[in-house]
Amino acid sequence: MLGLRITRISFRSLLNRGSLRGLACIYALGLTGAESSLRAQETGPKLTKQETQFFESRIRPILVSKCYSCHSVESGQAEGGLRLDSREAILRGGSAGPAVQPKEPTKSLIIKAIEYHDANLAMPPKSAGGKLEAGQIKDLIRWVRMGAPDPRKEEEHLIAKEEINESAKLWWAYQPLLKPTIPRADTWSWTNIDRFLSQKHHETKLQPVGDAKPESLLRRLYFDLTGLPPSIDQVRAFSEDLEKGLPRQEAIEKVVDQLLESEAFAVQWARHWLDVARYAESSGRDVNIPYNQAWRYRDWVIDAFRKNKPFDQFLIEQIAGDLIPTEGDQEQAQSIVATGFLAIGSRNINEGNVKLFALDQADEQIDTVFQATMATTMACARCHDHKFEPISQKQYTAVAGIFLSTDTRFGASGGNNGRNGSDPIELSSQSDLPSLPAPWGDSEIAKKREELAKLQRQIASIVDEIEEKRKAAKSNGSFDRSRQQELRKLSQQANELEFQLSALNEDDTVRPLAMGALDRPIEAPKTDSNREKLNRYAGALRRTAFPTIDDSPFFARGDVGMPGEKVRRSVPDLFGDAKDYPVPPNASGRLQLAKWIASPSNPLTARVAVNRFWHWMMGQGLVDSVDNFGTTGSRPSHPELLDHLAGEFISEGWDVKKLVRKIALSRAYQLSSVEPNPEAFTADPQNKLLWRAKSRRLQAEEIRDAMLSLSDRLDDKPILGTAMAKKNIGNRVDTSSAKKRGKGEVFPEDICRSIYLPMPRGALPEVLELFDLPDAMVVQGARETTNVPSQSLYLLNNPTVAGHAGSVARRVLESVPGRGAENFEARLELLYQIVLCRKPTGDELSLADELFRSSDSSDVGWVSLARGLLATAEFRYLD
Amino acid sequence: MSLCQNRVALLSRRSVLQNTACGFGWLALSALLAKQGLANGTSRPAGTHFPAKAKRVIFLYMRGGPSHVDTFDYKPELAKADGQNGPRGGSKWMKSPWKFQQRGQSGLWISDLFPELGKVADDMLIVNSMQTEVPAHAQATIRMHTGTSQFVRPSVGSWVLYGLGAENESIPGFISIGAAGSAQNYGNAFLPAYYQGMRLGNGNREVDETQIANLAPLVGSERQRRELDFIQGMNQKKLQNDPGDQEIEGVIRSYEMAYRMQSELPKVLDIKSESEQTKELYGLDRKETKGFGSKCLVARRMIEAGVRFVEISQGSWDHHSNLNLNLTNNCGQIDRPMYGLLTDLKQRGLLDETLVVWAGEFGRTPYAQGRDGRDHNHKAFSLWMAGGGVAAGKQYGRSGDFGVEATENPVPIVDYHATLLALLGLDHEQLTYPYAGRDFRLTETKGQVVRDLIG
């Protein structure tokens, strides 16, 4: 049985966990220019590389996490007059004398203290985590024996912080958007985008390659815009336009405009955003609990792209949709659904410390919101001032208060006995949003209700018994815990039933539920005494550590066990206009945060957005690190172009389709991706200057959807919910088919677009996972691409793929009827057209002929050829 | 993937390509590439940091947290205090229902639950002072496998494969048998997908090739070869159009391994060809030991085939109640097979270079839970190691008189990980992977090699 007990986490373990990120970041400090300049100013003895490394990797983390809270300038504490935050301070020591005698561990007070020999001197005190780990003690002894090498100079932290802040503030991404002049027209350029690029080509004397072949370009456009290949008819219509003498650019424009208005466009681009939003349908971490309402957020995103919702509004609704004025129940319900963005993240749902659970959740939200919208690693400042960005821990805490004041309703049954479970939001019944029907019949529902009532009676009686026993135990000292075990079991069962039945009203009609976020109340609601008893005796731990709208305490070193003074909620004062968005005392502040993020004067948001769309169209961003615009990220290859596009994006009403259209119609987008240019390759092998188009591997969904489409089986209509959500199970992810599969039976999930498949974390659909669907743990604006043998095995041996190959072969045989060799070429041409959107070459003809001739029958031969083509690199790559 | 890397090498590779026929000539080339460390998506450090004791690992993972005080941690004081008040309000010490004996020349104390394994005690190193952070299964399991439960990190097997590289390009270098729970336990996290563990089977079910997705060819081998020739022919043509495209090269390479896996992996998994004597050695002749025994035998075959890291997950050991019965059963299932595995590895001269580790995610309380159970205990537990250069025949660390908490030479998970890497010749501070702006390690900022564990 998984952990049927109340999890106790030692204080030390919390300290370690809370400070882990801090240690990690400090470890990375060696990279910054700020630190190397500090080295130069150093006054102490020069350290060897090993000494520095030993100090940085072993000693500094201990001092920071275990000692600084009481012995540093930063904490404002110097207990016993002692600070341990610089070499000078340590040697100077405190009221008891120098803390360290270099090379003499036995004479060094700090070693005596940490060895806990003398109770009066024992450090760190129990309240700060108690005795250090043996390894840490050994390290400190070794360090003193080495002569206590210490690169920290007095006031280092002040200098370091200021230096980092000052230099980071000058980082390009934090500067206001410029309005660059559009370079002059030239013969190469078709659009403004091209003029910016052409200017760079001229400056670097790079000659761009020629334009892509029409059939490659068409395939590229269809996949990029819709995630699907063009059909034979669509290819034909395009070539007829060209044959009729329609200029190429006009023919392309016609295709682009058509595609932008298609349902498939909405699906494709929603899927891109779902990567950024780390969309998935379960909690994913310690125990994997389903989020049965996650699909509503998915559908909201699709609808936003369908309707071309202005992107600033798109962001605001996801962060604060529940707080914006709306017209009518439906609109209100929709904008609450949008806040599902905040709720769908992964979480350690079995976390035994409810306070840590809340803080981790807020941290996950901050990380996601700031990275998704502003490509900023705000969450690094949870435990300390950001080492690389001008973000302080105080600013982080001010934002944390906003999210701690938010009631995140992720609508899940919870971990053990409902631990950290969360009720979904009930949408207005007038909202007319479709809901999933209950998966049970009337009699089944009645049975569940009875069962639940019975469990609740049993639970109540055991709770009474335990309470009596406890009273008795107080007098004689012993008390039998055996019934607690039973109580946990029963409450686990009751919790599951309660969760399932919460999908229904009393009259058995379905309640319209959603995941999302709401502001917490001003005053704490009354606690439910039955719930409290289960919390206590069954370890259910279903309670809120931060029940009201309130500011967050400043947690020293990000440690949940060390709350300090509260920091007023506010949007981060990073770009000067934060004061325009004051957080009212009676609101969380999410609305202000959302508006600040989506403000035209925010230098990051529009740039980040434009860069994401550019990346998805061009295969690489103008800023390579699409999720990180901070000082550890990359610089833009074409800063003026980025600002030009961002500026226009804002002035044109954050119009996504317009932006995508602009990119699609640029000459840069339409260049060949395969034409060689050795000179350019040598000068710019990474193609930063876009002298040719970038070929890309199809995404997982594109591979699956394309195969369905080629075999004429794709159903591209939206699906309500997912196969998993339909089952409405609370306590485990279940991706098995809802009912037994009859022979030849086709379920919607067999032929729907991939976006509608169940997406539980850790159990993503096989084909999507194989081809690098992100695991949705973090914001991921750029996908990985791998080539692993399991992909090859899938394409060679998977029966579903074989089924597609069979369908494609059938199409070919039916379209070109008749027997005999004279049809071979015509059929092969059709097969290549269907799968690769082009005719076979002479070489390929003989390659195919060889395979075909070796086949026992014509049918076998065509299936082999179809499977072979689906398995080629060319099918998987977009030229 | 940038096109610029190793351009010169690529040019020479292209010339190799041109000189090979379509299709399977790539085999030789991929071996060449692997040697040069140029293979797509598998860039890894060359060589070990210091001479390796072990080359491969078999990790016998006991899911659920086996009781240390009933198996490998002898507690005479606990027996004396049986029934008396324990450390927590209301708790009572509970002695082990099993007797302990000193085994082998080395005199290691092992309980009567392991009569067979006890015969090879001199090959074992027992650590009684293991510690982990949280007494919750999922977190402790992920910590055991990746070093942290707070963040998503690569599993030990992925790090080992990354550090040492593959020995055999026909089968994956990291295989996890019977894994249950989070995929993080065999996940590559930010390491290239090449280092991901291949999961084989689920829970305690027996393993065979039917459990590997898409491994069985759909068509006859002749047909498949011809299809592959066609596919690779098309791929080569594409590569010729854009020479040096690493991604296309990667596709070509992955087909080669996939093709070979189809025939190699079933061979590795086919234990029928083993002698009756060997089968008996692993306990395949008895119902209760057959399951785990066959996995141990498969693990040996994998090691022989060059897999770097094999994990066998076995459970559950979560004995909150019915300890007497269930622990007897659990140990009965693994005792003979583990003896068989160590003995067989030794006979074949493989034990020296194969590190075998037996561990759960934590231990259990020396005081009773209910009448016949023990609760989770993360402050002390035991593991044993064998082969691979460990200090065999030795017992290390203490968990006090009762087994509540590691009191002497505690070994946190990070130190265990650092030591494991050290046995493989890898320095845990140098084995890093650059990701998101910094170099990551298995042991993050901590970890110390426990020298006393190394022979």
What's this model, at a glance?
The complex is a heterodimer of chains A (879) and B (455). With 879 residues, chain A is mostly helical. Chain A is globular, with a radius of gyration of 31 Å.
Q: What attributes characterize this protein structure?
A:
heterodimer; A: 879 residues; Cytochrome Bc1 Complex, Chain D, domain 2; two-stranded antiparallel ribbon; B: 455 residues; nine-stranded mixed sheet; globular; disordered N terminus
Describe the SSE topology.
The complex is a heterodimer of chains A (879) and B (455).
Chain A: H1 11-27, H2 33-41, H3 49-67, E1 71-72, E2 77-78, H4 87-92, H5 109-115, H6 134-145, H7 156-169, H8 192-204, H9 214-226, H10 232-243, H11 248-260, H12 263-276, H13 294-306, H14 311-320, H15 328-338, H16 340-343, H17 354-374, H18 393-404, E3 406-409, E4 425-426, H19 442-476, H20 482-501, E5 513-514, E6 516-519, H21 529-538, E7 552-555, E8 563-567, H22 590-597, H23 605-618, H24 639-651, H25 656-664, H26 678-683, E9 696-697, H27 700-710, H28 748-751, H29 766-770, H30 789-797, H31 799-815, H32 822-836, H33 842-853, H34 858-871, H35 873-876, E10 877-878
Antiparallel strand pairs in A: 1-2, 3-6, 4-5, 7-8, 9-10
Chain B: H1 7-18, H2 26-36, E1 56-63, H3 76-80, E2 100-103, E3 108-111, E4 124-131, H4 137-146, H5 156-164, E5 174-177, E6 198-200, H6 221-241, H7 246-269, H8 276-281, H9 287-305, E7 309-315, H10 323-347, E8 354-360, E9 363-368, E10 374-377, E11 381-386, E12 394-396, E13 411-412, H11 413-423, E14 432-435, E15 438-441
Parallel strand pairs in B: 1-7, 1-8, 4-12, 4-13, 5-6, 5-7
Antiparallel strand pairs in B: 2-3, 4-11, 8-11, 9-10, 14-15
